[in-house]
Amino acid sequence: MASGNLTHLTEFILRGVSDRPDLQMPLFFVFLVIYGLTVAGNLGIITLTSVDSQLQTPMYFFLRHLAIINLGDSTVIAPKMLVNFLVSKKTISYYGCAAQLGGFLVFIVGEIFMLAAMAYDRYVAICNPLLYMVVVSPQICLLLVSLTYLYSLTTALTVSCCVFSVSYCSSNVINHFYCDNVPLLALSCSDAYIPETVVFAFSGTNLFFSMIIVLTSYFHIVLAILRIRSSEGRRKAFSTCASHMMAVTVFYGTLLFMYLQPRTNHSLDTDKMASVFYTLVIPMLNPLIYSLRNKDVKDAFKRFLKSPCQAFKLV
């Protein structure tokens, strides 16, 4: 039916979060609630940061794009996952699988570097407040976001093409709830050395460089906060980056948990649980983190509830 690097398969079967039939409906409702909260929370952040005149700053510009990325990440995975809880044959077409992997990579790489851009924004705000609007100008913000999306798309296309360049001949059961590169390459019946190397190189490089930006930014932020003499000044400076620090800690903590496991303890099932967290739970948590700990967002939400029509007219 096919030869060389062409696949014999036209579809894959996703094993999902659990094989147990008695857990399918409870899990469906759990993840339906998670996805519903994710959509509501991120759409709320996107709307508020777009229409409220007091949230037109670089920090909220980056937050809006983080919310777009979180919404995209969940939407690439959750709807298909929810459908699969309700059907007995949990299939995804070959090209659907490739599209899902590409979409997932676009948004996960986008989130890694959007968090890095936000860390740089907080560094400038705290360490160089007088130059803030010059250093983080609207043009610079647009450039950083555009480069993030462009690089994410390039990474996704490169890695997806590598993963789907191998042959998939007989086994088509993916031990995951979405099409991810590691469980896909585990099914290959041809030499997967080059695709595995490309996946590892991109993953390691992206994580390393984004973490360097984040850690360097927060090292200087902590030093700057410690130099502030008044406790009120320190509290105010810390509050401007507390939400982002929490989001960064949760996100990178999950990724590091996956990548720093000893090989002897490493399994696709462990990766699956970590993946649930950073593809579905974190996108739900981020709007809560940024709204519950942020007075500006809470005030903007109150203004929006009082006069939604007026809020849209302001823009």
Automatic annotation (TrEMBL):
Fetch the InterPro entries from UniProt.
Answer: GPCR_Rhodpsn, GPCR_Rhodpsn_7TM, Olfact_rcpt
Q: What is its main location?
A: membrane
Where found, per UniProt? Cell membrane; Membrane
- Give the record's keywords alphabetically: Cell membrane, G-protein coupled receptor, Membrane, Olfaction, Receptor, Sensory transduction, Transducer, Transmembrane, Transmembrane helix
Alphabetized GO MF terms = G protein-coupled receptor activity; olfactory receptor activity
Q: Which Pfam families match?
A: 7tm_4
Which GO CC annotations does the UniProt entry carry? plasma membrane
What's the family?
Belongs to the G-protein coupled receptor 1 family.
Task: Identify this protein by name.
Answer: Olfactory receptor
